[in-house]
Amino acid sequence: MLNKNIQTFIACDAEYDEAKIVLFGAGFDGTTSFRPGTRFAPSAIRNESFGIETYSPYQDKDMTDYSYFDSGDLELPFGSTDRAVDDISERAEVILADDKLPFMIGGEHLVTLGTVRAVKEKYSDLYIVHFDAHADLRDDYLGQKLSHACVLRRCHELVGDGHIFQFGIRSGDREEFRFADKHTEMHKFSFDGLEEVVEKLKGKNVYFTLDLDVLDPSIFPGTGTPEAGGVTFDELRKAVTLVCSKLNIVGCDVNELSPVYDQSGVSTAVACKIIREMLLALS
């Protein structure tokens, strides 16, 4: 049994036993290759979530009509990447053992590997839908296998060919794109083809990972590795709603907000609103 976190994401204050979706924060940025700061995202998102409404006019649904539990942030050891990933897996395993859906708020993108490991243990035939600016398919980064630049490559080692579907990708080295041609289904630059992929994956167990830098940095500047040429907020909102409402999502995460790089708070507000739309679409 997990204990209730005192400070929660807006409307995520139900009792653990009542909730089908359990949030937890993984504020880790120990392998960030450019600008650190994503360790502060989970707490910033909780604080700023009270600046948005619980009601979504997009979906005509209100968070107060559902039960969500926020289990708080993990205290992750920044000196040990392996330990941090293991700790994330352990939290996800507790949630999954109680037949609940783990919803992780990162953190850099490497945190996804911890939750995917736990989900894959429970659901052997697992598919991954990945929104991102970056391919994250390097075999190593500066000699390190555990890196935010390698996270989808490590996930591929778990789920295999034909099980990863990537959207919005507009950055990576040449070898990453060559790897994708053989092993994943990559949709570069946009969400073109998403509806067809959703139809293909209906009835399958799907993990959804959202790197918020898929957004154009004019909309979302608060991130460690901004990439020009991203999608709009409304394009992302429609895409996450489609994925979360139509597919059997068995785990998910939102990551790569680095609030210190956007003092206006707009990037954090964007993250909060996307999380609200995901939670409602999953409900």
Residues in helices, as a percent range: 25-40%
Spatial sequence of strands, sheet with the most strands: 4-1-5-10-9-6-7-8
Total count of helical runs of at least 4 residues: 8
CATH architecture: 3-Layer(aba) Sandwich
CATH superfamily: Ureohydrolase domain
Average pLDDT value? 95
List the helices and strands in order. Answer: EHEEEHEHEHEHEHEHEH
Question: Helix/strand/pairing class, anyone?
Answer: alpha/beta
Under CATH at level 1, the class stands as Alpha Beta
The CATH topology assignment is Arginase, Chain A
Beginning-to-end CA distance, first to last residue: 22 Å
What this model shows, in words?
With 283 residues, the protein is of the alpha/beta class. It is built from eight helices and ten strands. It has helices at 41-49, 81-97, 111-122, 151-159, 174-183, 194-201, 233-246, 266-282; strands at residues 21-26, 55-56, 61-62, 68-73, 101-106, 126-131, 164-169, 185-188, 205-211, 248-255. The two termini are 22 Å apart. The protein has one domain (16-282): Arginase, Chain A, CATH 3.40.800. The strands form two sheets. The chain has an eight-stranded parallel β-sheet with strand order 4-1-5-10-9-6-7-8, sandwiched between helices. Helix 1 packs across helix 8 (266-282), helix 2 runs parallel beside helix 3 (111-122) and helix 3 (111-122) packs parallel to helix 4. GO terms for molecular function: agmatinase activity; metal ion binding. Its cofactor is Mn(2+). Keywords: Hydrolase, Manganese, Metal-binding. Mn(2+) binds at residues 109, 132, 134, 136, 211, 213. One of its GO terms (biological process) is putrescine biosynthetic process from arginine, via agmatine.
